[in-house]
Amino acid sequence: MEKIVIDSDVKNISLVEKLIDEISNQYNLHSDVYGKLLLAVVEGVNNAIVHGNKLNLDKKVQIEYCITKEAVEFIICDEGKGFDYTAIPDPTLPENIEKTHGRGIFLMNHLADEIEFEENGSKVKLVFDL
């Protein structure tokens, strides 16, 4: 597992985008995998910064990743208290369509081949099949 640690500042999302670009180039990932990876991991890191760590610059977001012949795996951890990931409203329901938030986990669920929440939701594992 490789690892990077960033401060809880949304400006650091660009570091994650750069990392995914580098991984994509190094491993010659298919554009479909790259697109899913970029959207889901950036969403996960953004959630960790904004919702998990509440933009507290004293708190860190840890991003671990591993690439095998079969899959790309990312683990995103924040220092927040977690959340009830089983009670996320479906953003496709009519009463939620107009809301400007609440789509991140829905997106991550649909983009990743496997998603797992641990440590009360402050840790998320995303797996993308190759």
TrEMBL record:
Keywords per UniProt: ATP-binding, Kinase, Nucleotide-binding, Serine/threonine-protein kinase, Transferase
CDD domains cross-referenced by the UniProt entry: HATPase_RsbW-like
Membrane-spanning residues: none
Sequence ranges assigned to domain Histidine kinase/HSP90-like ATPase in this UniProt record: 8-127
A GO molecular-function annotation: protein serine/threonine kinase activity
Entry superkingdom: Bacteria
InterPro entries: Anti-sigma-factor_SerPK (IPR050267), HATPase_C_sf (IPR036890), HATPase_dom (IPR003594)
Pfam family, one: HATPase_c_2
Protein name: ATP-binding protein
